[in-house]
Design a protein that fits this description.
12 helices, alpha+beta, 19 strands, globular, four-stranded antiparallel sheet
Length: 459
């Protein structure tokens, strides 16, 4: 049975917010912890707790790093302030849950054997010796190294695929931002332990919940600038903007002066989204709230909902129509084939009389809204029309499913429609026609026999 997840991103989205929301929705914490332990990375622990955000109870997923791996995760003064005293390139990027990937630039000539002082804005110093095992071991991780970490873990195959998809999307976005290739881009912050854990955890939770469909209508984003490894950059940051562009994510810009959508959050949405439209009517089966870490004057939560479309509810469909009086029958037959192959729900012609009593045909196509552009392109390319009319119509559809059933004639596909009075069975044409060809019986006889033999008990 399909499970539909709706991500309501009114406060943006990040990796840790996603994990918290999915845990609150019911993902198994024990399964998550067991699979995270199998990751061949060290230097962290995870803390899962309940917190209050504007009085609302939410789940907080926190990856706590040891001293060698700590960074500026949620240091608002560093992210948005003006005076920080952090001018050296080895400073980590602004938040692990953002999933920033940066091409590693060796402009200060350090190696694993040197040492230097870190002066932090909160007033204490850290003298770091850099033996081979220092946190710089993640600075050179490229996409192959990250994918190897995922592959060598004990994560399920479904979780591995989702995590790998997220990393591919991030790498493509950063390669474009830095003008380099996918093979050459090196992971900086996403190569850090905490970011690997965030992305792996989101993939594990999605797989554990058995999510099959994900609806993400839009991502609310802030404005202004934010500090990263290379200085102050605009919001949305280049990686997020590239992901939104390449994967057709809708950004809803707000007046909040902060980064609400992190690259990791955008990559998760791009990797798992199957639709950007909610059903006209639906029921909420369960809700989960994931807490964000930042404090920027608005409630930092991601709400995740398991939803179910209301059965038998009216929805909308579109009709495209155009009148054609100067196109051959062969061309009209071919365009029908192309439209059906492209996903049109129905295609038909009606004879009409146009201006000056010209006999012509009206081409009618039934389709969903997201198919309009592609189908109109086919019509313009394959016919002589110069204009297409478009009508939105409401419709009421019966709940239906296709099943395979066994009969004395063999296995048959049937369509089962649910009405108030009960169920109605329709043998699928191709399935029934195949039996006709094999047995020599007429099509009408086959239909009657299938309907007699397939009972409610068998369904």
């Amino acid at each position: 049975m399909s499970k539909t997840l709706y991500l309501e991103c009114y406060s943006g989205i990040s990796g840790d917010m996603t994990v918290g929301a999915l845990l609150d929705l019911g993902a198994d914490q024990t399964v998550l912890e067991e699979q995270l332990k199998s990751l061949p990375v060290e230097g962290y622990e995870t803390i899962i707790s309940r917190v209050k955000k504007s009085g609302l109870a939410a789940c907080d997923f926190n990856v706590v790093l040891d001293k060698e791996h700590e960074n500026h995760d949620h240091d608002n003064e560093y992210l948005y302030g003006q005076e920080h005293g952090h001018d050296h390139d080895c400073i980590h990027d602004h938040e692990h849950s953002h999933g920033h990937i940066h091409e590693h630039i060796h402009d200060h000539g350090h190696s694993h054997g040197h040492s230097h002082d870190h002066e932090h804005s909160h007033g204490h110093n850290h003298d770091h010796e850099h033996p081979h095992g220092h946190s710089h071991d993640h600075a050179h991780r490229g996409l192959p190294e990250i994918l190897k970490i995922i592959e060598n873990s004990g994560m399920t195959e479904g979780a591995k695929k989702t995590a790998s998809d997220i990393f591919h999307i991030l790498a493509q976005a950063e390669a474009k931002a830095h003008g380099t290739s996918l093979q050459e881009v090196h992971f900086h912050e996403v190569g850090a332990v905490d970011s690997i854990v965030d992305i792996a955890a989101a993939a594990i939770c999605l797989d554990n919940l058995g999510i099959t469909e994900v609806i993400v209508p839009e991502l609310y984003e802030g404005r202004g600038v934010i500090r990263c490894q290379h200085g102050l950059i605009p919001v949305p940051v280049p990686a997020t903007a590239n992901i939104a562009q390449m994967h057709h994510l809708t950004l809803h810009m707000t007046e909040t002066e902060a980064e609400l959508v992190t690259p990791t959050g955008a990559a998760i949405a791009a990797a798992v989204r199957t639709s950007d439209r909610l059903p006209a009517r639906y029921r909420i089966l369960k809700t989960g709230l994931g807490a964000g870490k930042r404090d920027y004057g608005r409630t930092s939560i991601l709400r995740a909902m398991l939803i179910e479309e209301e059965k038998g509810s009216p929805d909308t469909i579109y009709k495209l129509e155009t009148n054609i009086d100067d196109c051959t029958g062969e061309a009209l037959g071919y365009v029908m084939e192309r439209l059906l192959e492209a996903g049109a729900r129905d295609v038909h012609y009606m004879p009409v009389f146009m201006k000056k009593n010209r006999p012509a045909y009206q081409l009618n196509i039934i389709c969903k809204e997201e198919q309009i552009e592609a189908l109109e392109d086919i019509i313009f390319a394959e016919t002589t029309t110069i204009g297409i009319r478009r009508v939105q119509m409401e419709r009421t559809v019966l709940d239906r499913e296709i099943k395979k059933v066994n009969t004395s004639l063999g296995e048959v596909k049937v369509k089962i429609c649910s009405l108030k009075e009960g169920r109605r069975i329709y043998p699928e044409y191709e399935s029934a026609a195949a039996i006709c060809r094999n047995t020599g019986f007429s099509y009408q006889e086959i239909l009657k026999r299938i309907c007699r033999e397939v009972t409610d008990e068998e369904l």
